[in-house]
Amino acid sequence: MAARRIKPSLYISVDIEADGPIPGPYSMLSLGAAVAGVQDADGFTAADPEQHTFYRELRPISEEFVPEALAVSGLDRERLRKEGLDPALALAQFTRWVREVGGDAQPVMCGYPASYDWTFLYWYLIRFTGASPFGHSGCLDMKTLYATKAGLPLRAVAKGTMPRELLSRRRHTHHARDDAIEQAELFANLMGWPGPGSPTR
Q1: Catalytic positions
Q2: How many Cβ atoms sit within 10 Å of the Cβ of residue 179?
Q3: Please, what is the average pLDDT of the chain?
Q4: 1 Cβ partners below 8 Å, 6+ apart?
Q5: Could you tell me the CA-to-CA distances from 96 to 1, 86, 174 in Å, in that order?
Q6: What would the pLDDT profile of 84-99 be if each residue is shown by its tens digit?
Q7: Distance (Å, rounded) from C-alpha 129 to C-alpha 42?
Q8: Which of helix, strand or coil describes residue 112?
Q9: How far is C-alpha 126 from the geometric centre of its chain's CA atoms?
Q10: Alpha carbons 115 and 63: distance in angstroms, whole number
């Protein structure tokens, strides 16, 4: 029996800004993404995270919002009502971008933490385009990746607990594109990290 060909994985760092805890009642206001790298049978190769990026600001889909959540991003809901893209258009553009940068590789969304960003991203993709270029499970959480390599309980993990050499030197600005780039660098560093007690590359 012939060996099954394993397609490479293209890791795409995604960051979203939203005005509440869950999609539907609340809105995704911005979506940023950056290609972090590709993994094949020979290993992981990091990408320049600034080379292939995506950013859109979206029109809110409801009247509800949590002021504290909105304040994190600094985005103006009233401006986005007028200037934000229709979510169906923004998510269709995102899907095309993922397919263009992905080529023959299978795209995988990676986030820090992935749970929040993936919840909004997947819901919006299904709601407004009917499909996800990542499938239903093409998602990798950087906190889990670090916890596994470091041998730590997941809830003990925060960026402040990570070795400094793993962290990006970029600031976390709560601008979705900036943070996607920052987290793409973190992901690439994590993929190359052999774990605690081992010399870093």
Answers
A1: 174
A2: 26
A3: 93
A4: none
A5: 36, 16, 24
A6: 999 999 999 999 999 9
A7: 34
A8: coil
A9: 17
A10: 24
